[in-house]
Amino acid sequence: MDFPRPKPTIHHDNYVFWEGCKQHKLMIQKCANCGKLQHPPRPMCSACNSLDKEYVEASGKGEVHSFFIGERSLHPLFPPGFNMVLVDLEEGVRIVATIVDAEPDQIDFGTKVVLDFIDEEDWSLPVFRLAE
Ligand code: ZN
User: How far is the CA of 33 from the centre of ligand 1 (A)?
Assistant: First the structure.
């Protein structure tokens, strides 16, 4: 497919996340004060309002919490049958992504998935594959 994948807007709050993706690491923000994990990354801890944060690498294992199968294409990168999934990572946070190399009928609530990445020229997109 030669349609360029739109590049995410990378800024102060998500820089560590996207830099981690380039190294094929899914970095989850962790509050340095209370230890709560949160995703997507944001300036302040949602539990204690601390601005101090660190990051932990996710295992990459998770399961589908919810999903959407698109029947019609709205964009060349999303052909009919494309999916969008909300994955519960085993660390306890959720991430929106897509499952690659999967047919729509292979995706359901609780489907086990593993992390992978699609490499673009200067950034990488986290995606999931069906677990063995
Ligand atoms: Zn906190």
Answer: 5
pTM over 0.90: yes
User: Which positions ≥6 away from 96 have C-beta within 8 Å?
Assistant: 84, 85, 86, 87
CA of 113 to the centre of ligand 1 (A): 28
Q: What pLDDT does 119 receive?
A: 96
Ligand 1 midpoint to CA 83 (Å):
33
* Dihedral sign for Cα atoms in the order 85, 43, 36, 119: positive
CA of 41 relative to ligand 1 center, distance in Å: 13
Q: How many CA atoms lie within 13 A of 126 on its CB side?
A: 28
Residues near 6 by beta carbon (within 8 Å), at least 6 away in sequence: none
Instruction: For residue 44, report the distance from its CA to the centre of ligand 1, in Å.
Output: 8
Mean pLDDT by 10 residues, the chain (132 residues): 83 96 98 98 97 97 97 88 97 97 97 97 96 90
Q: Are strands 61-70 and 112-119 parallel, antiparallel or unpaired?
A: antiparallel
Q: Using the mean position of ligand 1's atoms as its centre, give its distance from the Cα of residue 106 in Å.
A: 37
